[in-house]
Write a structure and sequence with these properties.
DNA-binding transcription factor activity, DNA binding, mainly alpha, DNA-binding, Metal_resp_trans_reg, HTH_ArsR_DNA-bd_dom
Amino acid sequence: MNEDQAVSALGALAHTQRLRVFRALVVAGSEGLTPSVLADQLGVARNSLSFHLKELAHAGLVTIEQQGRNLIYRADFAQMNSLLGYMTEHCCQGGVCEVTESPFTCASC
């Protein structure tokens, strides 16, 4: 991930409704959700939700799959992990965290 992609992703998440939508898609996992289910779960107007999903998709944080007449939205976990990796790439001098042995969580920073 480069700096421009990180700014785009972070910008897309820097809105309360989009952050809620993204988190709901993360919880849904690989099954994803349709916009109508998302709208019902989050109590968001469908036209507003459409705008937010478009922004998240443009930032590469969600994928869209057509299944029959429905669109299925899913969190793009690879892109999310790429963003986390970009944000933490210099943690513990850019290596694996000595405390947690994970490149994404560092208790010593």
